[in-house]
Every structure is written in C-alpha cells, then in structure tokens.
Amino acid sequence: MKENPPVWVTRFLHWFCRQDHLEEIEGDLFELFDIKVSHKGRTYARRTFLFDALKFFRWSNFKKPTIVKQINHGLWNHNFKISLRVLRRNLLFSGINVMGLVLGITAFTILLLYYLQETSYDKFFANHENIYRIAVNVIEDGQYQESAKAPVPLMELYEGAIADKAQLCRMLQWPGYLRYQQGDHQKEDAFVFADPTVFDIFTPQVIQGSLEGGLDAPFQLAITRSKALAYFGDRNPIGETLTYNEGSSEFDFTIVAVIEDLPHNTHLKFDFIASIASLNQIASWYNNWFYPTAHLYAKFNRPIEIAAMEEQFQSILEQNANPEYVGNAPEVVLQQLTDIHLQSNRQSEWKPNNTQISVGFFLLLGVFILLIAVINYVNLTTANSQQRTREIGVKKAMGSAKSQLVKQFMVEAFLMISFSVVISAVAFFTL
Fold first, then answer.
1. Nearest one of 64, 69, 52, 61 to 6, comparing CA atoms
2. What one-character DSSP code corresponds to residue 388?
3. For 101-119, what is the mean pLDDT?
4. Is 137 exposed, middle or buried (0-12, 13-18, 19+ CB in 10 A)?
C-alpha cells in the first residue's frame, strides 16, 4: 500500500505556497518522500517531511497578500461621534466604568514596574553574568553561620591559583568621619576600602578625573557625584583632599575620580572607594583570617560551572589557609551577582534583600487587580446593554447591519479604554 505524507504538512504547504509554484514543489516533495520510504522506512520519511517542506518556505514562494479593502473613514467618524454622545449621555455609568479601569490599570502598572525593578538588580554591570560573590559559611561557637563576607587573606590565595581565569577584588566597609579643610566632621557609613580591580569588575561611569591607576597608591579616593556636590559644591574636586578620622588618628585622602552614583537597583552600597593599601597605615592588622572580613568578588573571563569552581576554591582554602581558620570547617559558596538580591539572606549583606516569592506575589496581585477591573467593566457593560435594546431595535429597523452595530460598540469600548489609559498614565506620573 502506498504511504502518504502527513496531511497537516501538506495543508501548511497549501497555506503559504503560491498557486503557480505549488504543483511543482508538491510533486518534488512527494517524490522525495517515496524515495525515503523505500530506502529508510516510513517512520523516517514522515519525521523528515516537515523539514523538507520548510526548505521551500521562502519569500519567492509566498502567496501574494490580498488587497486590504479601503477603510471607510466617514463611517468610522460617524461611529466615533455617536460613541461620544452615548458616553456623554450616560455620564455616571461611563465615569464608574472608567474609574474602575483606571484603578486597575494604575495598580497593575505600579506593581509591574516594582517587579521589573526588583528583578533588574545588578544587571546594568558589564558582563554581569560572569561576576560572582565569594561567600563563606563557617561554624562559630558551635553554630553554623552563613556570611556574605570572606576572610581578607583569602583573595591572595585565590588570586595566585586562578589568576588566568578571573579578576578578584575585596571591598571592606569601614565607616568613619570625613571633613574638608576646616569644616565639620560628617559621619559616612558608606566608606569602603577596595582593591584597584574593583573598577575592572564593576566599571562605574567616570564623571571627572580618571580611574587609570586609581587606587594603586595609598590614600587615593574615588567619590560619587552626590558626595562631590555635598563637599565641594561647584568646585572641581580632583586633586582635593578629604580628611578621614578613624579613632584618634586622621589621614588625608586625595580624590582621583568622581563616579556616577550607584542606581537603586544594586545590592552594593558605597559613596567613597579608597585604596585598600591605605589600611597598611590606618589598621595594619586588617589582613588576618578572623577580623575584619570583606566582600569578595570575582569576574571570570568565561562562563563557569559553579559547583566545580566551588570545589576548586574549597580545595585551595583547605590546603593553604590558616589551620585555625580551617578548623572552623569553612565552606566556600559562589553567588552569581544577579541572584544576590532575590536569593541571598546572609549575615553582613550590604543592605536588606528581597525574595522571589514576595516579588512574584506582588506581580500576581497586580494581575488579579487588573482582572477584577476587566470583569467589573464587562459586568457593568452587560448590565447597561439591557437599557440599549430599544436603540439597537430602532437601528436594525432603519436597516443597520449587524457588523455596523458591532463596529459602533467596538468604538465605544475603544474610547472607554483609551480614556482610562490616559487618566491612568497621568495619575501614575503625578504620584
């Protein structure tokens, strides 16, 4: 018995292929199908028939589109005027319907933008998919603790072992008091000491100065635009010094660059980035395994397998770290940069994070509110339709076709929704 190709594929071919090409193409396909059946079997021939047909799915074989009928602008203008009169005549009904849609659209827009904001954290950094935070879990006083930080000397071990795979940097939060010349001291909680590679990993936008060689030498400082404005006003801050007070000592930092403020959608928090080499004079004891700890980041040159890299880092730590620290059974964890805000709830986070469940809940809430608004609109419109049966009857008696009535009601719905969207947009931008 002769085998036939799949019917749905031939229907697809008839749907897109122009008539003057169809007979020849269909003949070639059927002939090829018969050859495959005889040589490789029915199953193979049916499975590959679609791919053979798709080879002819190209512009030269497409059917010419049918000419669109000319739009009757006069009829649509007439429907538009009638719809405005109907909405104006039923002002209370129209107002209730519009306000219901406005509330639903506005609430949905706000919650949708909140969802998009929360899921966009740290995605503005270049090559963010290859940036990871190296965190360590330890046992302290018999309790298992998940920290967002790592020991300061850990970077030196990893840097020597994987220098060809990644750039690493440490960031130490070190709040202190700053003053400019003889001004008053200002408490600055977002003061951070970091390695020079911090600018290679996070690539901030430079407003003034240069990051070339920035933070290589002790007492070099990069500050954000807002802090430059707060301390120096309209003056150029490059080359100026800020006095940093730490305990009973004071140190002068030279400003080498002004960078753009961090956007809200990042888990990082800093206004000042100082060279970590400065700590050799400010707190020479900082480079130890127990205190202080630092946020440690790595930017890999290529995509990595997280589990395999964690095993490699764990092995390096256990073989080379301080024996007393290794005795606390540390466990290395790699966190992708864009996962931190919604999937991390560790000790010593830069700032409080959110969760995927709560963010998803707000998005579902927005969809639910919008759905209620749409249902309310449909119910009110359906209830009001009983009052318009006389109007519909008169129009039918005057010779109106069903399609004309449908078009009029579509125009009314379009106007109602358009008014709602415009009012919602105004309300949103004025909130």
1. 52
2. G
3. 92
4. middle
